[in-house]
Write a structure and sequence with these properties.
mainly beta; Methylamine Dehydrogenase, Chain H; single chain; 2% helix
Amino acid sequence: MNQEYQVTVLGVNSYTITVAATAIAADVTGSPGGGAAVSAAYQIDSGPAFSVPLTGWGAGSWGSGSWGLTSATDSMRLWSQNNFGEDLIFNPRGGGIYYWDASSGLTSRGVALSSLAGASSVPTIANFIFVSDISRFVFAFGTTDYLSAAFDPMLVRWSDQESAVNWTPAVTNQAGSVRLSHGSEIISCLQSRQEVIVWTDSALYALQYLGAPDVWGSQLMGDNLSIAGPNATALASGVVFWMGIDKFYKYDGRVETLRCDLRQYIFDDFNSLQRAQVVAGTNEGFNEVWWFYCSENSTTNDRYVVYNYGEDIWYYGTIARTAWIDSGLRSHPVGATYLNNLVNHEVGVDDNSTGTLVAIESYITSAEFDIDDGHNFSFIYRMLPDVTFRGSTAASPNATMYLLPMANSGSGYNSPTSVGGSNSAVVTRIATVPIEEFTGQVYTRVRGRQMSIKMESTGLGVQWQLGSPRIDIRPDGRRG
């Protein structure tokens, strides 16, 4: 029976477990110890995998629920963790604080921090824990106060310097606490240079080490802002970036709203009930900050948006990731999938997250362009693609380049339909030209008031880079 079992609760003082094999008499009364003392260790419930909205007044559209009934959201289970030397301190949001000793080996379990020798006034509940880079203070955010069982979602407590177990404030140590005033609960924190950045649901604070007697002091850095969830923050090149509930922000000593060309596209298709699932990460090799989030009709992360702070541009796509860590000492960034796999990114040209190679469908589309501000139709009869397939593993890599004509700005493309949604307007001509390696020029006959160029590939082992394609274009009258 030395293994894990799921418990079925029968009453206050009894429960049952089901084992694979039926017990025999020797197991009950004979050697090697059947019927002797039993030792059991209980695991923490894994908790909900996503947030579940509950019914009642305030849920859904105004007036749709019964007045006077409560409404809330059953929160998903999130964990925070930090290294304390070679050991690990971790905490399920809204639960206790636990400690894992690396010297006990990989088969050992974590134990309650309060059970360790010398433990004093360890918080019984915390929403978030953190170990500072400065002198190794252990922080608890949204926690119980000293000598109190009352939970305060705006309280910050810290242990004595270089001690994970001593949380009793005294003149002989540096344990202490501070209560933040702007907001209703603390959401997240992040180490940034010489300060600890703390987000409430409406403000940004900086915690700075002052030494005795105050030890840590708080400074309000920004108000009237938002944050999507505890893991929606990232630090890149000394700048803090995060995703709010309706915009993106950055902090480099002052709070600023990030200009985002995709803002409406992202937040019009964003499941705000699942915003706690938002995961941010950096890809320093390409000057990128990534956010993975749930689209409007999804309860799992299925979309991403990327901000390239080196070029100040945004791009987006579809991918399912639950966690992310940058390369650091590794060769590549690592992401976690819903199949419990850890996968390397920025290596290879195909998707191998499930163990089977799948082609990555990639494309880029230009904005619409015209001549004479659209006063005349234009006619394109030749394209000179500027493309290379360097890095492809396919023997004969190829991509497809499209010219997408529009009769007018509201007509939509004839194939595919406009990105904005279904559009039944038909334009009579389109050119689809396969671009194979080393193709120098292709001839087309495409006419439209506005044009767009698109290039895409859907094959295995294909990688391409697009330069500056050229087109031969001339005016072609005013009538469609």
